[in-house]
Amino acid sequence: TRRRLFRRIHGLVVAFLIKLWTFFIKAWNIGVNDPRKFIHCLKVGTALSLVSLFYYMRTLYQGVGGNAMWAVMTVVVVFEYSIGATLYKCVNRATGTLLAGSLGFGVHWIAIQCGENIQPIILEISVFLLAAAATFSRFIPTVKARFDYGAMVFILTFCLVSISGYRVDQLFGMAHHRLLTVALGASICIITSMLVCPIWAGQELHTLINRNLEKLSESLDGCVTDFFADKDVINVSNGYPNKMNQAYKCVLNSKGSEESMANFARWEPAHGDFKFRHPWKQYLKVGAAIRSCAYCIETLNGCINSDIRAPETLKKHLKDMCVKLSSYSSNVIKELAIIMKTMTKSPSIHISIGQMNVAVHELQDALKNVPNQVVVQILQASNDGMKGETTNTRPLLEILPLATVASLLVELAARIEVIVKE
Amino acid sequence: TRRRLFRRIHGLVVAFLIKLWTFFIKAWNIGVNDPRKFIHCLKVGTALSLVSLFYYMRTLYQGVGGNAMWAVMTVVVVFEYSIGATLYKCVNRATGTLLAGSLGFGVHWIAIQCGENIQPIILEISVFLLAAAATFSRFIPTVKARFDYGAMVFILTFCLVSISGYRVDQLFGMAHHRLLTVALGASICIITSMLVCPIWAGQELHTLINRNLEKLSESLDGCVTDFFADKDVINVSNGYPNKMNQAYKCVLNSKGSEESMANFARWEPAHGDFKFRHPWKQYLKVGAAIRSCAYCIETLNGCINSDIRAPETLKKHLKDMCVKLSSYSSNVIKELAIIMKTMTKSPSIHISIGQMNVAVHELQDALKNVPNQVVVQILQASNDGMKGETTNTRPLLEILPLATVASLLVELAARIEVIVKE
Q1: Is the ipTM of this complex over 0.85?
Q2: Which of A84, A262, B170, B218 is geometrically suited to a Cys-Cys bond with A280, CB 3.0 to 4.6 A?
Q3: Which of B107, B299, B357 to mutate to test the interface with A (most CBs of A within 10 A)?
């Protein structure tokens, strides 16, 4: 029995180790795919080591005293992945602390004037009211977007100042020291995040929108090619084209990250090709347009995977036009991506749009000509045929709104260029 | 000039006051629309007042000492809107603090054994390594979902313990006091959030999914009715039906909130009709299915708003079938909503699904019969007619995948019921 027990424990340990190992492999791959994540971790470590130096150096420690704790806390809480997020938190923390600190002093002064008996009551009531008000302000969308963290810091600081004022005598000196250490921690954060491999939220947003555009054109191409490909070919190369088609899926749910990035980007100073007050809101609009294109592709993809298949004759008739239209459309999207990347106006985009519009008209004409050529044939094999026609007109139907959305995208992009150029 | 200056200042002040007033009105309406937000604010105020009592009562203060600050901090940081979120933060804070505290003591002990000169170096290196590792763990999706806050608390506590251990002698006593106060703050949070008007994340998720189902059926009805309505009628009643049609828009982007709610719901104990370990993941699946339906409606809506109009003859021919199908589909969705609400299996859902499938077949048959009746007529007015047919087959094309998705939804819902029933 002893051996059995040993074996069992051994098995459990091995299973656990294997699980741990696969987890590590996964984690490692996350870092390898985006080495900036590793660098970010090292940056956090460096900033914390710098701050903790204040404890070890005797001369530094005497300057700051036991309040050095607040510098450590600030670094841990404020340091974020992108510079915009770090700046947002720093600014929020600073304003929240200052506002709450001065208010706290004011309330404290009033409470002292009222005598010792009423003092705690006044402090209690003020804490209750201001905490409730600040909490409520976090529900307001505009405040939440810009000052959510600030409101929290406000509540925290106000409570600490007004409450500890009741027990601590040297309130002013303490507050002064704390502000100093918080500022110290915040400046260490900003310096390390800006100097070592800076990650700008604006740049990230720019890249994200760009990549989404590329994914969109890829999926569009892939979908239409799939639809018109022979069935056997699809089955053989099942893995690859499907992967291409799924690229749009992450476009569908990118709204949240786009919004938060645009939010952080607003706090960033000029960097790279972006000026301060770069029109980040335009990126959100372009993102929305891209998403509506992705919805169209989603539906189109659903049609491709449906059971009903078009008859080959009709497919062949429309194949050229559809492929042409989709390739022109994806061309437009690709050129949009290039325009976005370089932030310059290119004249060739108008040519591409013209080509796309011509292709739309050609496809419409081709559809008009379908019945004259094929309808008789269809009526003979009416059961199968009509089903076929319904299926076959789909790509056009899906591509039409897609084309309109694409032209909408073009408009938006043009608007951005105008603003960028200014 | 003095008068002019006075007027100008007066104007500015008035404009500012008006802006402030409209902002207040807006904020007030947010609260009026969802009174639980007001209640939440009052809860936060109450919890903070309770905690600050520890400063004012002399007997209580002597028990806790200056560490009462940590209780205040815990309440401010941990108190969240839903119970799930509060519990998530409490558990994370507790485990993070304990883990980091014990590790910090361990490192501290090792550092002391190594002698005074090497001590700060060892502490520095351990801070650097552990901070980097914990920061990296926040990038791993599974860790981020469940222990993001815990990782942050871990870094913070570890730094504080290992660093201040270098200067503070009575480290153990301090840690003991701090843990006590943190536990005190956390328990005050949990008690107030659970006793006064509890807001369960699970319940919220349940309601959200339910409301999304209802919105979906509304928009589906609205869209199809709009499409087949006379143009004049649409123009007259422009405001109302469009509002109905837009209901699905908020379904499109609900993924983020659904996921965070499901995440918080996992931490909640049994409440109401939900047991502990309720299958919250199923809700996410249902949510995804609802969203794919919403994508279809988005495309359908795009078709309705396009410029190309179907000829009236064809419209009339297909109107009945399309309206029938869509009303049956939305019926199924509505019944699904009822099933979700009551969490019981109802036999009538199968009847509704049957009706829907029959309607699908009828519509297909109707489409097959179109050419025999109308094609001749169309060929005479070929230009207009064929364009018309393309437009007119749209609703079917859009509804077909929608119907499949709806039946998929039904499957999912059935699965949920099975799990709920267990």
Answers
A1: no
A2: A262
A3: B299
